[in-house]
Fold this protein.
Amino acid sequence: MTSTPKSSGPRSSRRHTPKVNTSGLYQRAVRESFAKLNPRVMLKNPVMFIVWVGTIVTALMTIDPNLFGTVQGNNLHLFNALITIILFFTVLFANLAEAVAEGRGKAQADALRATKSDTTARKLLPDGTVQEVSSTELRRGDLVKVIAGDIIPGDGEVIGGVASVDESAITGESAPVLKEPGSDVASSVTGGTRIISDELTIRVTADPGKGFIDRMIALVEGAERTKTPNEIALTVLLAVLTLVFLFVVATLPTIANYVHSPVSVAILIALLVALIPTTIGGLLSAIGIAGMDRVAQFNVVATSGRAVEACGDINTLILDKTGTITLGNRLADEFIPINGHSMEEMAKEALAASVFDETPEGKSIVRLAQKLGATVNFDRDKAEGIEFSAKTRMSGTNLPDGTQVRKGAVEAIKGFVRSRGGSKTADLDAAYERVSRLGGTPLAVCHNDNMYGVIYLKDIVKPGIRERFDQMRRMGIRTIMLTGDNRITASVIAEEAGVDDFIAEATPEDKMAVIQREQAEGKLVAMTGDGTNDAPALAQANVGVAMNSGTQAAKEAANMVDLDSDPTKLIDIVAIGKQLLITRGALTTFSIANDISKYFAIIPAMFASAGIGSLNVMQLTSANTAVLSALIYNALIIPALIPLALKGVQFRPLSANQLLQRNILIYGVGGVIAPFIAIKAIDIAISAVGLT
Amino acid sequence: MKRFVDALLPVEMAETIDLLLEQLRHRPLPLQVFLLMCLNLVVAPAVYATTGEAISRKAAYAIGLLALVTLALTIYLFVVVFQPERF
């Protein structure tokens, strides 16, 4: 049921729409980072809340250094003030990271809001009269009439008329889309889009404020953002680490007094802040928001961060063949006449069967037949076109002389011929097998009980798709192709594309069965769909991506909507989900690895008089410079890592073990070494300017 | 409690108390800080007594308060660990 993508250009060259205005993003983020200092907001981030409380305590100690008892040392006001300032900036930088990430989402929401304006709608009353009302007064079930030039006042289903609609406000696709009633895909309209020709009668399907654009605004703005399961797990880990270090630091004064090396509360707070995982604590929410934003930049709207994150854990990808694995625009390549019929006869019957067929396949059959010299030799006005349906699996024409020409799936046409007294021939099976072995779709053509031949619909596997599936396999993801084609065609395409498994002659129910089977084995499944009959499977899948060109039911059942209606994008979304998880893991590793060097900086400085000076491996100038250097590094590393948190760690299609080894090497070992160098450099700088 | 207050106090005072209770329900932080400082009236003398005269009375109160803040943070972190979805 997946539709053909509307945009033909490379994805990277497509304009991201709605156009997001990011000017002033950083000014707004700075203002927002101050607003986030509100303790109620800070409470949401346990690590940073502890730093915030520490900042207040050291601020009090700046005013009175002897607040908690007499402290030895010079320039205590200045020293405590410096600690306070550094801690304050640590909190501020963490807020800034979150605000910058949120800022992009808000800019996108503003752009969407600009497309959404209150319009006057022509509401159709039960007596048939038209009443002009504001679009905000429309309710689910109301009927409205829209004519060329109007903005569609709300999400709805077309129940009358045929018109072109400009959906560029949402999708960025400038080509107008035909909307008509009765069609599974083309009958759904979105509020805020513009009708550019003719008129439509629409039944409103969403109350004001609950439409598609409203949902998109709420999501990209982060208004409905709740923590994902991985974020919750990591928050617990960070809280446990913070708790452990709080206990350690709270019990240190007793030991310090015992070894006659009393420590001031300001230094204890500095030690606590240096030891708790502030880097990941400060960047955690920014990583999650940026992940959502990356998905949005791909013109995909996710209903929750949970859905994006689930993409990273996907084990099985279920993909439609047409439009996803193959180019989708199957074209007639050859007619294979059988039963002793000539090519001319076959072309004439194929043309008669396709003359009312408006699909790309039907038009290509007409073109090929005309190329072979076939002409329509009946009065079209007196003939009747029979549309394709999933039930009959054939289409055709009822001719004026009462006879019927049909083309369709070979099995369906065999049944049609049999029902009219005809019989099958060996020729048909040979032609069918030949086309199937070429990876094409065979369409049989008959005129009443007479079988004429087989049309070879050529299907081309998308370039580069095999490499993408190889990458998926390396990442441990299994790919399953679903197709309505016969088993031979399916196996040829599956072999050519390199998918792990395929299901031929599949029905929408088969999708559901495959998902349930995979989930029963404890796997997470992702799939795409656009039709109403895909809705149950989209809801059942762990990640369901609906096409924007799809029906309202599909969009509501899915947890992601692809505005470009490009089913191949599922593969990219999975990569983004993986990247999100990898980024979070890498920065957590880095943050915890940082503790080692901070420990070596502060502990020897604290207990210098206890004779552990040899632990001062960095040869830091003094106790005060050691504490300040570690804290400055701790604060500066947060803004330094903001770009990485927003952009994500570079994604490589490797297995879980390879990724773990690589990340431990880069972010684990690097997280141990980098701070040693940075803290030493900061210590030299502090000593050079004589700050302490 | 409300009936008891209404019966004993003048209307204006009862209304003022109602207003205060209503405010405290929405903004519990001032009450929590007040209770913390009340608790410190018990903790601080204990700190002062255990340290002899090594620290001043003011420092004893500050240390007592710091200990209570640390305790409050510990409880807060335990809540985060056991009910992370609230944060």
